[in-house]
Amino acid sequence: MVQLIDGRKAAQTVNEATKQRVKLLKQRGIIPGLAVVLVGHNQASERYVRMKEKQAQKLGIYSVLKQLPEDISEVALLEIISVLNHDDRINAILVQSPLPAHLDETKVIATIDPNKDVDGFHPVNVGKLYLNLPGPYPVACTPRGVMTLLEFNQIPVKGANVVMIGKSSIVGKPLAALLLNEGATVSVLHSQTRDRQDFLKTADIVISAVGKAHFLNDADFQPQTTVIDVGQNLDENGQLVGDVDYPTEPTNIRSITPVPGGVGPMTIATLMQQTVEMSEWGL
Ligand SMILES: Nc1nc(=O)c2c([nH]1)NC[C@@H]1CN(c3ccc(C(=O)N[C@@H](CCC(=O)O)C(=O)O)cc3)C=[N+]21
User: Fold this and answer.
1) How do residues 254-268 score in pLDDT, each as one tens digit?
2) Fewest C-beta in 10 Å: which of 38, 84, 100, 266?
3) Is 47 in the pocket of ligand 1 (CB under 6 A)?
């Protein structure tokens, strides 16, 4: 039987710890505050943002949603971020990606106070991660959530051959940096990579952040491979699926994160965890 790596269970453990920390902070008169900035009406984004709001409420985190019109000017958006930078109730700011095409995402992210950049996307925080500087500083939530999930399930990273498929700034690059910092041997594959199979056949851990249903299946891996599926795709039937297909009795996959119920819940739990940590760092 395939071993499922249960993201909901690990997320619940993280969330319980977060809830306790929120309680302790409240006794000292501190309430962690998260601002989510959402531009336009992307359906998936609206859904994710609702899930984040709901989880924040459950844990006792103060959260505000800045819902902005699709055609907002860049100047107006930067001004809103600047107000949040100076708002003492807010210690964590997240600008939901993707932004409409007329907005320069790089410029928008660089406007967030690095000390409030809960996504870890600001160049200063990216630089610290790449330099493997000692913390604390925020790190991208999905990559950090994956590291927590590996640790929680006692999947060794040090010395492991890890194949990271995808080189995005949100997942592939920061996750490769975290793995490298922990002593893994990391290959970052992408759409221009030749001979993908050669890399997959030597991997102990494969992480797929491609965003295509049926991108990989059991036959692509070597025996005893651990698979982390970061994909969130709708298949032909409108079902939420990851990048990787697998049977109930795989030959090669030893363990895999299901979609839903794998990496997704860890992203949100890590966002909440980091929001609370950041309110502590500011003391
Ligand atoms: N600035 C920014 N930060 C982000 O962290 C960010 C973003 N932009 N843009 C979009 C992606 C995507 N993302 C997800 C979070 C949770 C689930 C999640 O909880 N998924 C559930 C299923 C959700 C469902 O039912 O649709 C699961 O896999 O079990 C998925 C995707 C965060 N993102």
Assistant:
1) 999 999 999 999 999
2) 100
3) yes
